[in-house]
Specification:
This protein is 34% helix and 18% strand. It contains 10 helices and 16 strands. A 7-stranded parallel sheet has the order 3-2-1-4-5-9-14, with helices on both faces. Strands 7-6-8 form a 3-stranded antiparallel sheet, with no helix packed on it.
Amino acid sequence: MRVLVTGGAGFIGSHIVDVLEAAGHEPVVFDAAPGTKGITGDVRDADAVGRALSGVDAVCHQAAMVGLGKGFEDASAYVSNNDLGTAVLLEQMAGAGVQRLALAGSMVVYGEGRYSCPAHGVVRPGPRSVADLDGGRFEPPCPRCGAALGPELVGEDAPVDPRNVYATTKLAQEHLSAAWARATGGRVVSLRYHNVYGDGMPRDTPYAGVASFFRSALERGEAPRVYEDGGQRRDFVHVDDVAAANVVALEGLAGLAGGELRAYNTGSGSPHTVGEMAQELAGAFGGPRPVVTGEYRLGDVRHITASSERFRRELGWQARVEFSEGMARFAKAELAGSLSAPRGA
């Protein structure tokens, strides 16, 4: 299978290219980075995308502006890179007759995770208030009675509730892809990534994940700074597992009905707190120990961990890299240089 990988020179994209080659497929790299080994181009450039699609059987769409996007200072840049770029890609795929797409989705489309109240069962808390965060009250209360909530795993059928600009654009990518599938008879798998980490992560950039921030600090001899109280639950999934998930998704597209988008949570299945991740990484690196700061970022969610059971059950994928092993590897792995601007996942 000849597969166009947008953002194929980026962190996740480059790993996908390697796994595609190892599986006997022919990846075609398309990336905006100068000097790309493949096709250099912007996914918003219709002519460049059209040329890149020549002879392609499927597309693995990783190109995106990543990060929190918590304010509106760069909202237009997020929409342009993520949503306009996806629209141009889909438009060109429709013209070229390419009908298979694996999309880099994100768990951020859910907003806060799934919570249960002892008295009211499953509830959806609203955004956390500045007053609560300033007062160190980080756990969202039950919206009906104010009781403490228990975090649970989120399934793909949970209501979506994007709470920042980046999350909104990731959901829009799914909606655009679903509309394209209905209009063309195409097939789409959206992989809703959790917190991806591993070798090749960019260092010292606002568009990298928390694991990269912590690892960069350790390299500088500084203690990782853990926001809130460190109790935020996340699912840290190794990039090797995510790359393998994309190949499984691409190979499984033939089994989908035409006109369908199928979403799959793509995580390790083993939640950990941000504080635990910082401790594990610092220990593997050899210190210094993390510092819990009590600071927060408005727009961050408290807990978001999801079940990847559907992915395992329907396509046979599951993560293989255990948390301790992955952090030990990441502590010694090479990071990529800083990015002046985002170019791909």
